[in-house]
Amino acid sequence: MKNWVKLVVSLTLPQIAGIAGALFTETGESSWYQTLQKPEWNPPGWVFGPVWTTLYVLMGIAFYIVWKVDVPSSQKRPALSFWIAQLVLNFFWTIIFFNLHEPGWAFAEICCLWLLILITIFLFARISKLPAWLLVPYISWVSFAGLLNYTIWQMNE
After folding, report:
1. Which domains does the chain show, CATH number per domain?
2. pLDDT class of 153 with cuts at 50, 70, 90
3. Distance CA 63, CA 38 (A)
4. For residue 8, pLDDT beyond 80
5. Quick one: pLDDT at residue 133?
6. For residues 133 and 61, is the Cβ–Cβ distance under 8 A?
7. Does residue 30 register a pLDDT over 90?
8. Could you give the CA distance from residue 118 to residue 79 in angstroms, rounded to a whole number?
9. Spatial separation of the C-alpha atoms in residues 101 and 99, rounded to whole Å
10. Do residues 82 and 123 lie in contact, with contact meaning Cβ atoms separated by under 8 Å?
11. Reported confidence tier of residue 27, pLDDT bands at 50, 70, 90
12. What's the chain look like in SS3?
């Protein structure tokens, strides 16, 4: 497969996951989310779109670099598999939190997501340092989102 095709696929996959997740996200004035108590440090709603779009681009670039690098597939396959697995969990967190209205289960899921991202970072770093570093803003944001998720869960128990 040509590298430009790999790049397009790599950048598109996370955006599709994000858009698909957004279909399950209702945050309007009359939504369940708006009825929840939230901490003072909860970001305004407009922050999430640009942040996630940026993170998805960084994730895609990281995936692309690992996918195209010339290393044995026995080394590449686990790294790319964990990347795909964490993207799937990323998508499902949105459904669990916003659609099923289960912040407790969403917190458990985001902890699993965080662990998969960390493993992905380590696997990527074995192949190339740059894609590993490109995932650092992502795990940082998921750490923040996990803390926010936990706080919302506790405030609304």
Report:
1. 3-155 (1.20.1260.100)
2. very high
3. 34
4. yes
5. 98
6. no
7. no
8. 11
9. 6
10. yes
11. confident
12. CCHHHHHHHHHHHHHHHHHHHHCCCCCCCCCHHHHCCCCCCCCCHHHHHHHHHHHHHHHHHHHHHHHHCCCCHHHHHHHHHHHHHHHHHHHHHHHHHHHCCCHHHHHHHHHHHHHHHHHHHHHHHHHCHHHHHHCHHHHHHHHHHHHHHHHHHHHCC
pLDDT 10s digits, 71-117: 999 999 999 999 999 999 999 999 999 999 999 999 999 999 999 99
Q: Which residues contact 112 (CB under 8 A, 6 or more apart)?
A: 89
CB-based burial, 66-93: b 16+ in 10 Å, e otherwise? bbeeeeeeeebeebbebbebbbebbbbb
Length of the chain equals 157
Residue with tokens 């009825």: 35
Among 89, 52, 64, CA closest to 1: 64
Neighbours of 44 (CB within 10 A): 6
Q: Rounded to whole angstroms, what are the CA distances from 61 to 24, 119, 134, 156? A: 26, 17, 8, 37
Residue found under tokens 């869960």: 153
Query: Model-level pTM?
Result: 0.94
